[in-house]
Amino acid sequence: MKLLWITAFCVSLMASCQTKEPAATTSIVVPPNTTVDKNPYVTLDQSPLDVSYFPPNYPMQRMKQQDTFPLIARVIYSRPHKKGRPVFGSSPQSICKYGIPWRLGANEATEIEFFREVNIAGNSISRGRYVMYCIPYPDKWIIKFNSNLFTWGLHIDPSTNIATAEIPVEEQTTPIEDFTMVFLPSADGAHLLMAWDNVKTILPITF
Amino acid sequence: MKYILLTVFTCCTLLTTSAQDAIDKSPLDVSYYPAGYPLLKVQDKVSGAPLARIIFSRPQKNGRPIFGNLIEYGKLWRLGANEATEIEFFKNVDILGNTIRKGRYTLYAIPHPDKWTIIINKDTDSWGTFKYSKDKDVARFDVPVQTLETPVEYFNAYFEKNGKTAGLMIMWDNVRVTIPISL
């Protein structure tokens, strides 16, 4: 009986999880003849902006619970799509070329804000806002924190770098279509997971 | 049994994760004043910090009537979707007689047919209007509603230079309001 009950629970759980997906997909469909193309002001970005918080989903957690945990970090970045293109590599077609600085996204430089002092790869980083970018290689990413804010993600001046971290590249077994940055809890702080195409890296942040 | 349960849970987690990773249907966007500040910066036309920036999500009209329907008159609205809309001033500013100190704020609105009540509140990083507390208001003022001939599909907010002031234009469907910011 117990087994039956558990099976029924599992099935209903699966069903509830799966019904979520089509619902999300159908609501994204843009009906034809909408006014999107006629927008005389600012059209929707091809690589839209997104935000990730630590603690994860901080604004939503605040809505659901009491404010029992402090805000530690947030990253604001744009999310380019793979769209069938080679992402990391050294061929002329690669979007992010090995050894060449990349803005970790698209459009404006990626911005990370720490709401308290943190430690990254032996660097003590003061509370504040920074531009974050990356120099990708096949086996590692070199992550740079830079103090020149509110800039477009190109021509970053390395003389205003304040910290560097080298992190290993891991294989992302399910290729990721949209560039993703998300904070995950870790034993001694947070991990900033960055993934696109078949590459995944983790930047450990301790505090 | 334990194995099945674990598999089911893993499947669910994966599904949820993939849903989270998908691009938001009301994507986030940012506008600066001076307009296009980050681009001006890489062209060496400006330096330092901008004067203001707004970070907001962009819900879609999607064929729905918006004001008076999806967004009810007289009710607090997050001016977008998802997280509450954030406005940041990089110096003290004046809006219709209210001095707003340099800093990061949440921007809300209470829409009416002919005017919107705009609220600047100092509680940041919240979702929707759920954490709204009037105690944390720093300013409340009314701006008139202008009617647009061309409906705006995606909610939008941007700054426009208007003489010595910056106009924060907020628009969706056939409605626009302008918030005059004296710098």
Question: How does this model look, in words?
Answer:
- The complex is a heterodimer of chains A (207) and B (183).
- Helix content of chain A is 16%, strand content 42%.
- Chain A is an alpha+beta fold.
- Chain A has 2 domains: 2-32; 37-206, no CATH class.
- Chain A starts with a helix and ends with a strand.
- Chain B is mostly beta strands and 183 residues long.
- Chain B has helices at residues 2-21, 37-42; strands at 28-33, 52-57, 85-89, 93-95, 98-100, 103-111, 115-121, 137-144, 146-162, 165-182.
- In chain B, the strands form 3 sheets. Chain B has a 6-stranded antiparallel beta sheet, with no helix packed on it. In chain B, strands 4-5 form a two-stranded antiparallel sheet. Chain B has a two-stranded antiparallel ribbon with strand order 9-10.
- The termini of chain B are far apart.
- Chains A and B meet through α1, β1, α2 and β10 of A and α1, β1, α2 and β9 of B.
Which short descriptors sum up this protein?
heterodimer, A: seven-stranded antiparallel β-sheet, two-stranded parallel ribbon, globular, B: mainly beta, six-stranded antiparallel β-sheet, two-stranded antiparallel sheet, 2 helices, 10 strands, disordered N terminus
List the helices and strands and how they pair.
The complex is a heterodimer of chains A (207) and B (183).
Chain A: H1 2-28, E1 49-54, H2 58-64, E2 73-78, E3 88-89, E4 96-97, E5 110-114, E6 118-120, E7 123-125, E8 128-136, E9 140-146, E10 161-186, E11 189-206
Parallel strand pairs in A: 3-4
Antiparallel strand pairs in A: 1-2, 2-5, 5-8, 6-7, 8-9, 9-10, 10-11
Chain B: H1 2-21, E1 28-33, H2 37-42, E2 52-57, E3 85-89, E4 93-95, E5 98-100, E6 103-111, E7 115-121, E8 137-144, E9 146-162, E10 165-182
Antiparallel strand pairs in B: 1-2, 2-3, 3-6, 4-5, 6-7, 7-8, 9-10
